[in-house]
Amino acid sequence: MKSKLKFTFLMSVILVLLVRCTKKENLEVQQEITKAELGKIIFFDRSLSNPIGQSCASCHASNFAFTDPKHSIISQGISGRLFGNRNAPTVSYAMFAPPLYYDNVDSTYVGGQFWDGRVNSLEEQAKKPFFNPLEMNVSDLNMFVTKVKSATFYLAFTKIYGANDDQNELLDNIADAIATFERSDEVNPFTSKFDYYLKGEAALTTLENEGMQLFKDENKGMCAKCHMIEPDPRSGKILFTDFTYDNIGVPRNRLNPFYGMKTQYNPDGSSFVDLGLAKTTNSAINNGQFKVPTLRNVELTAPYFHNGVFGTLEEVVHFYNQRDVDPSMAPPEIEENINNEELGDLKLSVAEEKAIVAFLKTLTDGYK
Fold it and tell me: How far is residue 105 CA from its own chain's centroid?
């Protein structure tokens, strides 16, 4: 009799626990999340690629300033050994780039997303990797919608955007959620040593301060001519880019895995030349021009430039300093339209190069 009572009591306890767990799960499902939180979930979701296994964060990891966590020259796609043709840029601070436009005063294009400015918003950019066979490889919109509706975040998604059978609207809403996360403080924190220095809450070392002065010097380092250290006129933020385009004479990266892709992906094979902005504008005057990237978190985002040709900040600064005078420098991939006014022979000493690198490292977020 006692054994039967114990068994009945035990079953009652188990039943109560099950009911409580079910209620808790339902409450968690019903609990509203913000659009930015949903966007973050989608950004890290690996179920949306074909096959599953790759997310936005696979090439834009949060602990590496939203760039490739493996520091790959070119990030590997989900399908076998397929690669694109460009280094993964940081997502951080991309929100501040305006839509692509031509500045008649400075005679240059400004803004846009990607290295070549081919789309005008974070929402447009967020859609592209899903359907790129060299990245997430989703074959069509039907497959994408099926994946979204099977994803663990779908119920939360419908609570924000509603259940809708319009496939294009669903894609737009997914992109909207991702872009909302990319505009959040988590992605754009402004928490570097430099930011605290501006607020009077941190002091630069002698070397860092020397590097900052060289960075700003219009007759020496000249870095701030493109990587602006003054507040951006649109946002009021110091972004260390003016979002313009330039051919700075970057050498060809012979290790770029895109050269070895099949002809269906790269019909030019090893003779492929990346024309940059010219592919967007359809104008040869823009051959070899790429968007000036932000230098925020540059310590974390190696390798550098659109083709990942340089692996360290020291190499990059030396290239800017002695591109035109160091005989060991490889020739530029595209020799037309090269900027010869603001780099190439800066006459910086080795010590001055080191000082600029020291300053660049003060731009890393998460300073304590």
Answer: 29
Quote the tokens at residue 247: 């051919």
Burial of 181 (0-12, 13-18, 19+ CB in 10 A): buried
Count, in order, helices (H) and strands (E) of the chain. 12, 4
Cα end-to-end distance, the chain, whole Å:
65
Percentage of residues in the chain having pLDDT higher than 90: 90
Give the pLDDT confidence score for residue 164 in this predicted structure. Answer: 84
**Residue-wise burial string across 261-295, b where 16 or more C-beta atoms lie within 10 A, e elsewhere:** beeeebeeeeeeebbbbbebbeeeebbbbbbbbbb
Predicted confidence (pLDDT) at residue 85 exceeds the cutoff of 90: yes
CB atoms inside a 10 Å sphere around CB 190: 16
Q: What's the half-sphere exposure (Cβ side, CA atoms, 13 Å) at 92? A: 29
Cα–Cα dist 187/92, whole Å: 5
What's residue 31's pLDDT? 62
Q: What is the pTM of this model?
A: 0.90
Whose tokens are 């460009």? That residue is 86
Task: Tell me whether residue 132 is exposed, middle or buried, using C-beta atoms within 10 angstroms of its C-beta: 0 to 12, 13 to 18, 19 or more.
Answer: middle
Q: Is a pLDDT exceeding 70 seen at residue 2? A: no
